[in-house]
Design a protein that fits this description.
The chain contains 11 helices and 14 strands. By secondary structure, the protein is α/β, with parallel strands linked by helices.
Length: 308
Amino acid sequence: MADAVILKDVAKVYEGTGKKQVNAVNGITLNIRQGEIFCFVGPDGAGKTTTIRMICGVLPPSQGSIHMLGFDVQSEKKEIKKHIGYLSQRFSLYQDLTIDENIDFFAEIHRIKQFHQRKEELLEFTRLTPFRDRLSGRLSGGMKQKLALACTLIHTPDILLLDEPTTGVDPVSRRDFWKILSSLLKTGMTIIVSTPYLDEAERSSRVAMMNDGTILQCDTPNAIRDSFRTQILELVCSDVHRSAAVLSVLWGKERIQLFGDRLHVMVMDATKDVQQILSCLAQSNIHVDGHRLLPPSLEDVFIARLGV
């Protein structure tokens, strides 16, 4: 499979206060293949947005090179613009225009003359047809994002770049948005998305886990999970907070995570470790209602790599 985007030793440095430099991105090298959903995932400040903006040519890199579909992103920007759709965090819809009028406006920006059939396809695809006469200012958060996506797709780009497109959107709309993205793969489109949500990264073809401007690991979700050589012991206890405090002394805080009313503990030797943990809790008069071993999720892997 050919590469859609190639980054070589790409970095971005900003001047901070007192002439102190801030390294937003530190020497990233990776290839993004044509026809895949590639996901940058990480916390705020990880460098996701900066990386997306450098890939689409909005920001120049401080060092390194970026090529998209064989074109240099910096020296051949006009050619690049024909092939990409970019949905930024601050994508602006016109609140006093209807869904129809917003799509028409973005079609004119891209100088597309015969776009009416394409518009009908996008309205049907995003399930916005029944609302086409509604002002965008009166749409829900999820519907606004679907309209923004339709506007971004009106010129049929080869590569779609989405910067945290579902932040602040309700869970049902998030799931619906990702179903739409998965459907787009059938057209052969390459999708590059950044997100703080690890459950969204699970839906991607490949994932780049980022923190402090560095890629911690880049692979398929399955390969990342398989690389984690521990299991997760899930405990249902009478007092999860006290249980976490007790086990932290024995096990180490970095190997224990609270998940609602449950406790997750990373174990290496399932049989030996589970018995030791249960005995420790029993000695502290903590009742365990149930326990089970789970395969690690991307969230487990990421938290372990961050060491928090």
